[in-house]
Amino acid sequence: MNRIPCMEAVVSVLESEGVDTVFGIPGAAILPLYAALRTSSIRHVTVRHEEGGTHAADGWARVTGNVGVCIGTSGPAGTNMITGLYTALADSIPMICVTGQAATAKLHQEAFQAVDIVEIAKPVTKWAVQLKEPAQAPWVFREAFRIARSGRPGPVLIDLPIDVQRGTCLYDPALDAPLPVEIPGPRPQAVRRALELLEAAKRPLILAGGGVIGADAAEELREAAERLRIPVQVTLMGKGAFPEDHKLFAGMAGIQTQTRWGNAVFLESDVVLAVGARFGDRHTGELDVYRRGRTFIHVDIEPTQLGKVFEPDLGIVSHARPFLAELAKSAAGEAKAVPERTRTKWVKRVDTLRSTMPRRDDFDDVPIKPPRVFREINDFYGRDTTFVTAIGLYQIWSGQFQKTYLPRRYLVCGQAGPLGWEVSAATGVKLACPERQVVAVVGDYSFQFLMEEVAVAAQYRMPFVIVMINNEYLGLIRQAEIPYGMNYAVELGGVDHVKAMEAFGCPARRVEAPGDIRDALAWATKEAEKERLPVLVEVMVEREANAAMGPALDAVKEFETIPAVDWSD
User: Fold this and answer.
1) Residue 93 class from Cβ within 10 Å (0-12 exposed, 13-18 middle, 19+ buried)?
2) Could you tell me which residues are beta bridge partners of residue 299?
3) Same domain, 9 and 92
4) CB-based contacts of 129: which residues, under 8 Å, 6+ apart?
5) CA distances to 8, 167, 171, 270 from 134, in Å
6) Do 287 and 206 reside in the same domain of the chain?
7) What is the CATH number of the domain that holds 401?
């Protein structure tokens, strides 16, 4: 077996794990790893901020399903990565962040840029570890990939002291391979009980969370729903798990990112099968309203998720794909036990609520009303377009109005909600899938958080469209502040986003009339491809526009006027 620089062994591991792109910024304490990368097949993308690097690796991971990798040097490089690690942990995204570190002998002496990044990162990672010996290098990285992928996926941090990086180890890549990842399946008895509960229900509902997308189980979900004739709702993280133009699509329930008719469907359901969903507070609202009158079956790959928010009537530990596959298989022929008229009546009821309670999006007002922007986005872009969006009023509007048809086409930082996520994540997506149309939907304030990352997309000639929903001030914060009578953070101004984009060498256009939105989207799409650059369409919207928010599911007045259905057989 050959003795080689241990960082060369690390790079060999990265290549064999399917990593073709890494994001980072070189620095003195990480140079041995960068030296090894120079002779590898891996593309390094130099970002402008380590947080931006983590978000780019995050976007790359979300769209590929593989483990994203971000690299930084010691000290503030690692602390800058914490937000990205937290985002990946909250949304179950497999990612590895690698940091350089001062020499081992200097760690207790407060050396330059020496910080205990392992202890800092532990609360926001699945595993945070410092390499102690060069001989451990390939095996620590192998374990990092296994942990990142296993169970509920998530991030890992590996800290590399400079003296350890300079060491050597015995390693033969021909004798090594990725470690196996367990995919736990359900017990047959549990599937049988779940099927019994669903067959006995008059108004069953499947709730598909982000775990369905992470498990690549969209086809199994569709087959199970169709065989059992059960409507399907998605969570925000689950958008794309089920096509929104399918006859069994039942909308989205919640207190912010929801459809009104989806809330109405949920409130009429009697049995809910939640797969890969964690019952986040923005989805459930007040639990007494959410749970009232319903039986819950909760399926999750992570055992400790079961009962974390509330105790389900039936908990099942399983990877989403084998569970849904087994459910569909068991349902073959079994669905006849359910009276056809009952299922038909429920599916028709869902269709009635869908057609009766849509949110209006055809406004012609000036200033532009935000729903009109999303109407134009839905009409202009195709089913295969990948959308990236972050947090704020524009995320709420996006969840309420944007249509999604395929998995891994709607990427959103759902739980952590870091402002500035979108442009970096879109960069990662475009590098991973250069053939796809990529659109980042941003807010004016979020864009300014990491706007320097536009320079990365420009440098590497990455064509994607940025659609900015600009209400010129902190709309969501102002909306939340109203009960407290505070307006201290409202007025921002001072940034001309068109000129800012042009300063990066990128085209941009401002839109102030609804009739001009489609032309601007067409121009931006064509310009992005022609110039091989990110292009901005800044849409000036109504300053006072709010989004529906509240403590519980939004049962609106239209729901009360729709005739009730007699569910007795």
Assistant:
1) buried
2) 275, 316
3) yes
4) 118, 140, 144, 156, 157, 158, 159
5) 11, 5, 11, 58
6) yes
7) 3.40.50.970
247-256 burial code (b ≥16 CB/10 A, e <16)? ebbbbbbbbb
Give whole-number Cα distances, 74 to 14, 100, 166, in Å. Answer: 21, 5, 15
Domain boundary among 151, 175, 199: 175
Give the C-alpha separation, 146 to 228, whole Å: 35
In the chain, the number of structural domains is 3
In a domain, 145, yes or no: yes
Domain that holds residue 330: 188-359+554-561
- The pLDDT mean for the chain works out to 90
Report pTM: 0.92
Residue 361: the pLDDT is 85
The CA distance from 264 to 205, in Å, is 12
Residues 67 and 150 both lie in one domain: yes
304: CB partners within 8 A, 6+ apart: none
Q: Are residues 234 and 303 in the same domain?
A: yes
For residue 549, being part of any structural domain is answered with no
Closest residue by Cα to residue 23 from 51, 48, 44, 49: 44
* Residue 547 resides in a domain: no
Are the C-beta atoms of 82 and 120 separated by less than 8 Å?
yes
Grouping H, G, I as helix, E, B as strand and the rest as coil, residue 295 is: strand
Assess contact for 416 and 392: CB atoms under 8 A.
no
Q: Are 397 and 543 in contact (CB under 8 A)?
A: no
pLDDT computed for residue 549 by the predictor = 56
| Cβ neighbours around 174 below 10 Å, total | 7
User: Of all helices (H) and strands (E), which one includes residue 101?
Assistant: strand 95-101
- What mean pLDDT comes out for the span 269-287? 92
Q: Is 401 exposed, middle or buried (0-12, 13-18, 19+ CB in 10 A)?
A: buried
Looking up tokens 């120079």 gives 38
Among 109, 140, 175, give the residue marking a domain's end. Answer: 175
The Cβ of residue 116 has, within 10 Å, a number of other Cβ atoms equal to: 13
How high is the pLDDT of residue 486? 47
Considering the domain architecture, whether residues 405 and 515 belong to the same structural domain is answered as: yes
Q: pLDDT-based confidence at 552, cuts 50/70/90?
A: low
Write the pLDDT tens digit of every residue in 115-156: 999 999 999 999 999 999 999 999 999 999 999 999 999 999
Tens of pLDDT, residue by residue over 226-250, are: 999 999 999 999 999 999 999 999 9
Answer yes or no: are the C-beta atoms of 554 and 258 closer than 8 Å. yes
Asked if the structure places residue 548 within a domain, the reply is no
* One domain for residues 402 and 536: yes
Residue spans of alpha helices (H) in 229-300: 260-268, 281-284, 287-291
Tokens at residue 91, please? 């949304």
Same domain, 36 and 158: yes
Q: Is the peptide bond before 370 cis (omega within 30 degrees of 0)?
A: no
Separation between Cα atoms, residue 12 and residue 358, nearest integer Å: 53
What single-letter amino acid sits at 57?
A: A
Here the CATH number for the domain that contains residue 211 is 3.40.50.1220
- Other C-beta atoms lying within 10 Å of the C-beta of residue 456: 25
* Count, residues in the chain: 569
Looking at the fold, whether 309 and 374 belong to one and the same domain comes out as: no
Percent of the chain at pLDDT exceeding 90: 74
